[in-house]
Amino acid sequence: xxxxxxxxxxxxxxxxxxxxxxxxxxxxxxxxxxxxxxxxxxxxxxxxxxxxxxxxxxxxxxxxxx
Length: 66
Hints:
The protein has 66 residues and is an alpha+beta fold. It is built from two helices and four strands, in the order βαββαβ. The protein has helices at 17-21, 45-49, and strands at 3-6, 27-29, 34-36, 55-58. The strands form two sheets. It has a two-stranded antiparallel sheet with strand order 1-4. The longest helix has 5 residues, at 17-21. It is globular.
């Protein structure tokens, strides 16, 4: 199952764009990065909303975190 994660080579700036974009309300702002709930459905809305491309979908055949 796909899930949003912080890309290992990117830096989350904790701007909140992804948090506001998540239709399920499954992201929250942490101290150093966004925290993605284990209940993430992998819709990709947050990855598209991130202006820094720090969030990617992982766990699927087209895994973007590589």
